Amino acid sequence: MVSSSHEAMHRIFQDHPGLFSGVSKVLGIDFAPPTSVTVLPNDLTETSPVERRVDTLVRLDTEGDEPLLLAIEAQSNKAPDKPASWAYYVSYLLTKYRLQPMLLVVCQDRATAEWAARPVDFGPPQWPLLTLRPLVAGPHNMPVITDPAEVRKDLALATLSAITHARNPDVGAILKAMTTVLRDTPQAIADPIIELIAQGLGKRPAAELWRNLVAVDLSFYKSYIAEEIRDEGRAEGRAEDILRLLDRRGIDVSNDDRERITSCDDLDVLGRWFDRAITAASTTEVFAD
Description:
By secondary structure, the protein is an alpha/beta fold. About 50% of the residues lie in helices and about 10% in strands. It has 13 helices and 7 strands. The chain has helices at about 5-15, 20-25, 80-95, 110-115, 150-155, 155-165, 170-180, 185-200, 205-215, 225-250, 255-265, 265-275, 285; strands at about 35-40, 55-60, 70-75, 100-105, 120, 130, 135. The strands form 2 sheets. Strands 1-2-3-4-7 form a 5-stranded mixed β-sheet. It has a two-stranded antiparallel ribbon with strand order 5-6. Helix 6 (about 155-165) packs antiparallel against helix 7 (about 170-180), helix 8 (about 185-200) runs antiparallel to helix 9 (about 205-215) and helix 9 crosses helix 10.
């Protein structure tokens, strides 16, 4: 199943295709900024029943140079069969579009990034027929951006950096720099970035920190993140009200019952429990269906 962090690592290049120029400069390779961009179908399936899809595929047109086909793959772990798939992708793209392909692999952990960056030879050892050498962006080579001034210079690169450094001990400073800049960023630009970072952080501890920063620093934000935070706050408050009411009425609450109440995030259920707690003689009556 494709995770939200997987989606964010490659979809950011659809929203900000010029980001590749910034990433390539960080990696020590110079690709000119595109003058136009076309997002292409990512389905590489042939007439055979085997379905093959690259995560994101865009065509980058630049001044003076030949157009470039950029395939972006988000990779969360080592997969022994993946290099062969990548080799198929780029050879297929070259054959189909007659344009030079480039493969960028985005990772969130150093071990996977270093694995993906290794050149892989195909063919007999005495005469390798093909060598796969993708560009790789990950926590080992993406900048740690904690200065709002640096975030402002390249908001898309800073967003990718925040996603790739989801496990970094300094992720709090990274995310704080993002919200500092996003406060003054037009909402049409800020909203997709907020969503991308939320997706990219997935279910890691940094995701909760991001949600809190968005709620406090970006009060204008009205997406599902803010709504979830507000609902969680209401649920926590209602759970505390139930426990306080039961305590005032002298009703014994076991650790298991307390955990059941505090872990519930359904406001309708908590409302029913609160109403029952007013007259219930035990927690059994509170939870009764």
